[in-house]
Amino acid sequence: MSEAVVSTRVRLARNLSEVPFPIRLSADKAQEVVEKVADALKDCEIKFHRIDLDTVSDTMKVALLERHLISPDFVREEKGRAVFLSDDNTVSIMVNEEDHIRLQVIRDGFEPDEAYALADKLDNELSRKLGFAFHEKLGYLTQCPTNLGTGMRASVMLHLPALDITGAVHRIGANLSKLGLTIRGLYGESSKPVGAFFQLSNQVTLGISEKAAIANLKNITTQLIAQEMKARDNLLGKIEVEDRIARALGTLKSALLMDHGEAMNLLSLVRLGVASKKLSTLSTDSIDRLIVEIQPASIMTKYGDMTPQERDIKRAEIIRERFQ
């Protein structure tokens, strides 16, 4: 299962009762919401550090986005926005994105039940202290009607190289909406898949319980992984595919320049080779960590501002060192 599932995420959308949605808040009122959330988190069992969006560089914002700790929409505004991160970065709480609170829990591997349990625990604690907008028939009230009800999006990050190579992932994606799910690119809505990494998430939030949505996600994920493994078995007996995997590893070990797109595609092939025991090199977990480390803004956050070419040189250097 872990061969194809990179991580699991559960995100809850919540709004404070008797407070206008963020789109109708002035900067001052939005800041008041930030301070209320900060106060509510002070005595929380999990310790959070606060990042006010208007106090950090654009590079840092993109680095947070690359790590899936904030959303693309969140970085488009600064005033009255903050994110609270747990020390291990597995829990993030965006304040005043589309809703007052976007609470998300990320776990490595396929752990939807564990991710939901922690998200639910934090949700209950914040609800007691802040009071969330809730309707007896509609459930949790959200700015976008598509989030009404549970306000929950549960997703898994999948590595589906075999289904991507054969083109089957596009056919499967077209049928998922009938099952209440959707498959998207690496960064969710409107993003394109890179390196055969996809996000599978629930679409339906109204008229279904959180646990039922989690169960549906687990069921479809299991079926999708079975199809991926079957496709891998068919592909990996072909010398052309094994040659692509071997060449990918060779390029990663020796290249002096490596742009982000090329790196993602090559690492995807090597990850496939490792998971299928065709290669003996870095573990899949190590490759997953490397994929985060070589993102453009993540490189500049660690090593300073760079031109695109300097970044490509540094990326190639990081990859070469890791594969030695």
Q: What does this protein structure show overall?
A:
With 324 residues, the chain is α+β, with helices and mostly antiparallel strands. It has 2 domains: 5-230, 2-Layer Sandwich (Creatine Kinase, Chain A, domain 2); 239-323, no CATH class. The protein is 46% helix and 17% strand. It has 11 helices and 10 strands. The protein has helices spanning 27-41, 58-66, 112-130, 161-166, 168-176, 210-235, 239-254, 260-275, 284-293, 296-303, 308-323, and strands spanning 5-14, 48-52, 82-86, 91-95, 101-108, 134-135, 139-140, 152-159, 181-184, 197-202. An 8-stranded antiparallel beta sheet has the order 2-3-4-5-1-8-10-9, covered by helices on one side. It has a two-stranded antiparallel ribbon with strand order 6-7. Helix 2 (58-66) packs across helix 10 (296-303) and helix 7 (239-254) packs across helix 8. It is globular and about 65 Å long. The chain starts with a strand and ends with a helix. The mean pLDDT is 93.
Brief summary:
The protein is α+β, with helices and mostly antiparallel strands. The chain has helices at residues 27-41, 58-66, 112-130, 161-166, 168-176, 210-235, 239-254, 260-275, 284-293, 296-303, 308-323, and strands at residues 5-14, 48-52, 82-86, 91-95, 101-108, 134-135, 139-140, 152-159, 181-184, 197-202. Helix content is 46%, strand content 17%.
